[in-house]
Write a structure and sequence with these properties.
- With about 290 residues, this protein is of the alpha/beta class.
- It has an 8-stranded mixed β-barrel, surrounded by 4 helices.
- Helix 3 packs parallel to helix 4.
- The longest helix has about 35 residues.
- The N and C termini lie far apart (about 90 Å).
- The structure holds ligand C2E and magnesium ion (MG) (3 copies).
- The site of ligand C2E has 24 residues, from strand 2, helix 2, helix 3 and strand 6.
């Protein structure tokens, strides 16, 4: 009987594993082809100065518009792209597109991009990025790189050299999802960050949880002490915004200000606000 149960269990388990493996290889193939076909596009989330309510820039968030799966979250395809060795190509293609978009925005607006830990282990990454900035005629000081602390567990010497050369060019480095890792505080001393981004788990529970308020209070005083400006992610309600403003002068982002939007939607909105550079300025020089 045990044998039969064992066989049954096996028989029950096997097709699922097969389905999963099949799905996984289909997903990998989809990502490879999607990259060739230009199915990966940048979306943009507004970043706001919470003191003045002014728009300061956008965070680029990767999206996959897949003919097969629809609009796919980066939580799904970034880890797979990392595993199959395509993250650098994917990320750099998206950054190139984002630089083209951001070039048409008011030059006071910044662009933040998320960078995978794997990219920071490639000593040539900094050079390629700087080359892209030159090609797009984009001021390095307008670019912010967001890294999570998983970056910081291995090859820290390589990462530090790379980060330092990016910083020397004027690029800002932010510590993303702050407070969620198991060694957040230690990481602050590991690399010369320019900004802390408070993870949205603390921000979105601000109204309901006294603990979240204490944590944000602590991060805020840490930021003041280390002269590190702070961005709060995941602001969804006016109540959370009001509560946050009592802690200090933060930047912020979240669905309260709108969902991440396509380049075209952003352009339309900036045009309405008078925050697009004139088309004449961006058009290629007429041959005189
Ligand atoms: P992240 O950098 O922490 O980005 C914030 C995530 O929270 C985004 O999810 C954003 O859409 C979402 N979000 C923003 N405001 C709110 C809010 O008010 N409420 C809620 N519930 N969510 C909010 P998304 O776009 O799915 O990205 C997830 C993560 O994927 C990002 O987290 C980032 O770590 C990663 N990612 C995105 N684009 C890239 C990329 O080009 N390269 C790499 N390496 N990672 C990326
Ligand atoms: Mg981010
Ligand atoms: Mg984050
Ligand atoms: Mg995140």
């Amino acid at each position: 009987q045990a044998k039969r149960r064992g066989r049954n269990r096996f028989a029950w388990f096997e097709p699922n594993m097969e389905t999963e493996l099949h799905f996984r290889s289909e997903l990998e193939q989809g990502i490879r082809e999607g990259l060739q076909r230009g199915e990966f596009v940048p979306y943009y989330e507004k970043q706001i100065d919470l003191e003045t309510g002014e728009l300061t820039g956008f965070e680029m968030l990767a999206r996959w518009i897949s003919p097969q799966y629809g609009l796919v979250s980066p939580e799904v395809f970034i880890p797979v792209a990392e595993e199959i060795g395509l993250i650098a190509e994917l990320s750099e293609a998206l950054i190139a597109l984002a630089l083209e978009d951001a070039r048409t925005w008011d030059p006071r607006l910044t662009l933040s991009v998320n960078i995978s830990p794997l990219q920071l282990r490639d000593p040539w990454f900094a050079q390629r990025l700087l080359k892209m900035l030159v090609a797009a005629n984009f001021l390095p000081a307008r670019l912010e790189i967001e890294i999570t602390e998983t970056c910081l567990h291995e090859n820290i010497a390589v990462v530090r050299t790379l980060i330092t050369s990016l910083k020397n060019q004027g690029i800002c480095i932010s510590l993303d999802d702050f407070g969620t890792g198991y060694s957040s505080l230690a990481q602050l001393r590991t690399l010369p960050f320019d900004r802390i981004k408070i993870d949205r788990s603390f921000v979105s529970s601000l109204g309901q949880s006294a603990d979240s308020a204490s944590i944000i209070e602590a991060i805020s005083s840490l930021g003041r002490g280390m002269a590190l400006p702070i961005t709060a992610e995941g602001i969804e309600t006016a109540d959370v915004l009001a509560a946050l403003r009592r802690f200090g002068q933060f930047k912020g982002q979240g669905y309260l200000y709108g969902q991440p939007a396509s380049a075209e939607d952003v352009k339309r909105e900036l045009a309405a606000l008078g925050l697009l550079t004139s088309t004449a300025e961006n058009a290629p020089a007429p041959d005189a």
